Amino acid sequence: MELEEKYLxxxxxxxxxxxxxxxxxxxxxDGTESTREVAYHPDGVGILALTDRDEVLLVRxxxxxxxxxIYEIPAGKMDPGETDTEAAAIRxxxxxxxxxxxxxEPFGSCLVSPGFCDETLHLYRAADLRFGxxxxxxxxxxxxxxxxxxxxxxxxxxxxxxxxKTCIAILREALHRK
Length: 178
Prior knowledge:
Blueprint: E1 6-15, E2 20-27, E3 33-40, E4 44-49, E5 55-63, E6 68-72, E7 75-77, H1 85-97, E8 99-111, E9 120-131, E10 142-148, H2 149-158, H3 164-177
Parallel strand pairs: 4-9
Antiparallel strand pairs: 1-2, 2-3, 4-7, 5-6, 5-10, 8-9
Helix pairs in contact: 2-3
C-alpha cells in the first residue's frame, strides 16, 4: 500500500522567531483530502557529556510550556543558516556548562515530534572534559549538575528524567556500554 501523502495547498498561520506554522491540505493515499498542521523548527543538538568520574552533566531548567523545572542534557537549536551540527554542539556544551571536550563524537539523531514538527536533534557524546566559564544567553537560566551515570540511568527508568533527548542519550550510552 502506498503511504505517502501529496501536498495540495498551504495556509500560513504564524511565523515567529523560532517556529513557522502552516496548515497544509494533502491528498491521502486513498484519494481523500485532509489537513496537516506543521511546525517548522530549526534542527537542534544535544550533548551527553561524561566526566572522568563517570558523571553525566545535566542542566536543570524551567520549561514554560510544561510549567516546571526538568533535567536535560545540554542542548540548543541551530542558528539560522548554520549547518555544522558538531560546531553547534561544541558551542552549546561550552555555553551551558563551561565544559570543553577532549573527545567529541556523533551519537545519532532523533526526530523530536514528527507528527507535527520537522525538527531533527543531533546527539553527541563528549568526554575528557575541561571546565571554564558558562556563557549563557541573556534569557537563559539553568543550573548544571553532575550526576553519576548509574543514578542518571535509574532516574530515566523511574521517570524522574523524562525529557526525550535526555532519555535517548542516556539509554544509548547504556547500550554502548554493553
